[in-house]
Please model this.
Amino acid sequence: GDKHKADKQILACARELLHTRKEHVVLVTLNRPDVVNAMNTQMGHDLLDAFLDLGARPNDQRCIVLTGAGKVFCGGGDLKQRNGMTDQQWQDQHYIFERAIRAMIDCPVPMIAAVNGAAFAGGMEMSLCADFIYASETARFALTEATLGIIPGCGGTQNLPRAVGERRAKELIMSGRAFSAQEGYEWGMVNRVCEPAELLTATHESVRAICACGPVAVRQAKVAIRRGLDVDLRTGLAIEIEAYNRTVVTEDRLEGVRAFGEKRKARFNGR
Model:
């Protein structure tokens, strides 16, 4: 039944992806450290399965953390696996990556990318799918696709301009040059730069703050911000009110007001 299917999915994710839950938080770890966590076909399937599952059951978790095993976040696509592929095989594999990236972007649960090392090409594109990025001082970023004769195809040409502006994004994508976590911070792409040993600690400080808020409210705020950026202001205000009204009818709204009046911490249940 459903339990057997879920168990099989967890086993599949264990191949190239570590997918662990604790107290409403899911830690998703790219798990191919011997090959800089490069994205192969199996990792694409694992990411797609994991984020479709997370998006289908948003009440089961309040925050997702995405990171890499070892000293690298993700070096991009596995070029050894791609070497010798026909055009059709390349496109078939990339379609899996495209679906995985869309599932990450569409996931209603707030997500933080904890970038622990190099995030190149598809790795950087995955980090840009998160709601915000915390990065180690040792992290470096690059969209290197143009140096291989292609362009970013997993959201890079869309998400990077939204993060750093059109002109900066053109410079970085057209040259393929790498940049530091500090530069990413100065340009507004990275929210916080941390000492390597403090990266996950700092990330979990934000996780705890997010988890302490009403989960429905957090998800609706994410919807309003993301959808609102793609439309004019008047339409964005309508999106905001629709999202707001979805929070008014929740038990969490009543609990939040009660807790404020009773001068205690709210106990939100996500309903």
